[in-house]
Design a protein that fits this description.
The chain is mostly helical. It has helices at residues 2-19, 21-29, 32-60, 63-73, 75-108, 113-123, 129-142, 145-157, 162-181, 185-232, 236-242, 245-274. Helices cover 89% and strands 0% of the residues. The longest helix is centred in the last third of the chain and has 48 residues, at 185-232. The protein is elongated, with a radius of gyration of 26 Å.
Length: 275
């Protein structure tokens, strides 16, 4: 009984801490709000782990097998959330050229840039609506283009995306330069800025395509041995083998190796992205 409890505790701590090692660093280093988000997310993870444990236990009737499988499988909702965040970030990147093109068109038509920005809140890309709303609300209250653009940048900073903040800051600087110095060149400058963003986006899309097969391979490699274990668990000999002390040791080692392999392959994909 004591060895079983030790196994369960060890497997849970190893699996959860290794999978969420980056989040644990955030817990230690960041502010109270981040700590609360970390706590909520890990409570949700525990709920998912418990559900998956119950499902696998109904199939295998073995807690020794159900626990490591629940730890591995519970990471994939977190992975899905990361993918959703990545897609949202990608949609924001793609929205910048659209916004800048519309500002360039408005400038060529003689429409003041602050009016064009206000109109974009309802007509522009939904991905940047929060930033455009912040500008409109500030401009309505203060009547200042510079303050409104500062609120625009502040809203972008809430995303915690470096490229997003840089583009908001570049747009702010471009518009203020146009206000201070005037001239018809503002349309050309905005068009060139839009072309530059589109070229960067094209390069990022190409890199993401190269990276995706590595990530998909990491997911498949992580899941395959545990799915096979569930299938083999229909044989009583498999369950009895993993209920022994040596079987528990094999499961713990397998869990550790799964996490290390996943982290390693993910790091390789990140190196591909940075090239």
């Amino acid at each position: 009984m004591n060895s079983s409890r030790t196994f369960y505790l060890t497997a849970f701590l190893i699996g959860s801490s290794l999978f969420y090692s980056k989040d644990f660093k955030l817990l230690v280093l960041q502010k109270k709000k981040v700590k609360m988000n970390w706590l909520v997310k890990n409570v949700q993870t525990l709920v998912v782990q418990s559900f998956i444990f119950a499902v696998v236990f109904l199939i295998t009737r073995s807690a020794n097998i159900s626990l490591p499988i629940s730890i591995v499988a519970s990471y994939f909702p977190h992975l899905h959330q990361k993918n959703s965040e990545r897609k949202a970030e990608e949609s924001r990147r793609k929205a910048w050229p659209l916004v800048i093109d519309q500002l360039a068109t408005a400038s060529a038509s003689g429409v003041p840039l602050h009016s064009a920005l206000i109109e974009l809140e309802s007509r522009g890309p939904a991905a940047l609506r929060a930033e455009l709303k912040a500008f409109r609300e500030s401009f309505d209250c203060e009547g200042s283009l510079e303050i409104g653009l500062s609120r625009f940048v502040d809203s972008a900073k809430k995303r915690a995306e470096t490229n997003h903040v840089q583009r908001a800051t570049q747009l702010k600087s471009t518009i203020l330069l146009a206000r201070d110095f005037g001239g018809p060149e503002i349309g050309v400058i905005l068009r060139n800025l839009s072309i530059n963003y589109r070229q960067k986006e094209s390069a990022l899309d190409e890199i993401a395509t190269r990276q995706s097969w590595i990530k998909n391979g990491a997911v498949l490699a992580s899941l395959t041995p545990w799915i096979l274990l569930v299938i083999l668990s229909f044989h009583p000999q498999t369950i009895s083998a993993y209920n022994s002390n040596s079987g528990r040791a094999v499961l713990v080692v397998g869990l550790v190796l799964t996490v290390i392999a996943y982290k390693w392959i993910t790091r390789i994909s990140q190196s591909v992205l940075s090239r």
